[in-house]
Structure formats: C-alpha cells, structure tokens
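Quick one: structure tokens for this chain, please?
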Amino acid sequence: MKKMLKHYARAWWLAAGLITLGTPAIGAHHSFAPFDMGAQKTISGTVKQVDWTNPHIWVWVDVQNDQGVPETWGFEGMSPNYLGRRGWTRTSLKPGDKAAANYRPMKDGSKGGMFVSTKAPDGRLLSMQGGETPDK
C-alpha cells in the first residue's frame, strides 16, 4: 500500500510539472506583443487571398500606395474554429471583395496587423470579436 501511494505521488508531481512547463508555451501562442493594441486603423483595398488555416486565419489585402502601385498587406485573425462558431465561413471574405479593414497595426510599422473587422459585400459586419452581425 505504501509503495502504491508513493507511485501515485510521483505520478501526480510528474503531471503537475508537465502542466507547469507547458503553460508558458500556451501563453506565448496568444501573445499580442507584435501589435499596437492602443491603436486602431482602417485601410481600404481588395481582398487578394484568405488563408483559412489553423491556428489563425490570414486575410491578404492589396492596397494602392501613393504611387498607385498595389501593395499586399497581411492581417492575422482568429482561428477558423472560433470564427465558425460566430457564423463565419471560409467564403465570408473572398478574393476580389472590396474591404475597408479595421486593424491593430504592427509595432514595427510593417504592412499589416491584427484584423479587427470589415464589412462584407452584402453589408454584414465581419468582426473577429463577435462574428457576423447585420448592419444596423
């Protein structure tokens, strides 16, 4: 009996150690460090591509620069699972759609950021926080 309790205690400490070691990795995955969370900007362009992939979707938008040359901006979104539970589908935004993307900019000034929301061509608000909602 004593040997069995010792075995359970060892197993418990091993499990606790593994959980503790894995915790920083979980937190690191969901870091907002590259984004300026105190700012929100809007940029208009044409959806070039939507990568509906785990762990986060990416929305690529071609934006005309000051010289009229298109530049591709990348916006990171939430996971397909998260968005699917809020009414999004992989075709909520499609290549060719015109979009005014609201986003949290990159701290380093690169072209892109964290996708916040846009309006779909049919007028629905596509939001990373609340899914698709009717335009009011």
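The two ends are 68 Å apart (CA to CA).
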